[in-house]
Specification:
This protein is an alpha/beta fold. The chain has seven helices and eleven strands. The longest helix is centred in the N-terminal third of the chain and has 12 residues. The chain is globular.
Length: 200
């Protein structure tokens, strides 16, 4: 199923329908402020396993997507210096690594000691998480060895993944550059990957 949602003014009924798909063990593809991404509910183990199978070799690296800063501390350890970094840079094309709390299921971590957190500067992504009522677990559609057009064009994404996901949300052309990744688990922020975001 492919659904067109306008990012400037997401239709609440379409957002509610997508959230229902996520609650029913669904896996979707949705737009972010960087590349398109797979997403599922953090609370659905079956959906997490499905998403892991779809991603294959890159399945170990998942990120939590939130709609606001207020919820991050429910799922990851955030001290004052870390919060300041998050506040200055989110929403935006960043993935920040934090230490997960026990509310993050082991299926989401796959034995990793950190979890990425995101608040995309994309109204569709944030509206989805807000309607769902819990974080989305997510991983980018783009692999390093893939052609850009397969990961930026929703039509081509639907052609390629439409049989294995429950919904592809067309929010317009996606970016070809991934997020900037910053590790906040140490004493000082450590830049792990340069992407779209410029750290403030």
């Amino acid at each position: 199923m492919q659904v067109k949602i306008w990012p400037d003014n997401p239709n609440p009924k379409q957002i509610a329908h997508a959230a229902e798909v996520l609650r029913a063990d669904g896996v979707i593809v949705y737009p972010t402020d960087s590349v398109y991404a797979f997403g599922c509910s953090l609370h659905n183990p079956k959906a997490i396993e499905r998403m892991r199978a779809i991603k294959g070799k890159d399945a170990s690296v998942f990120t939590l997507v939130f709609d606001s800063l207020a919820r991050i501390a429910d799922f990851a350890r955030v001290d004052n210096p870390q919060f300041r970094v998050l506040k200055h840079n989110l929403p935006g094309p960043f993935t920040f690594l934090l230490t997960p709390l026990s509310r993050v299921p082991e299926k989401a971590l796959a034995r990793r000691k950190s979890i990425g957190v995101r608040i995309p500067a994309n109204t569709i992504a944030r509206a989805l998480v807000g309607e769902l009522g819990c974080p989305m677990l997510t991983t980018s559609v783009k692999d390093d060895d893939e052609f850009v057009e397969y990961t930026t064009d929703p039509e081509l994404i639907h052609e390629r993944y439409g049989r294995v996901v429950d919904m592809v949300i067309d929010g317009g052309p996606g970016a070809s550059i991934p997020t900037t990744v910053v590790d906040l688990t140490g004493d000082e922020p450590e830049l792990l990957r340069e992407g779209l975001g410029e750290l403030k």
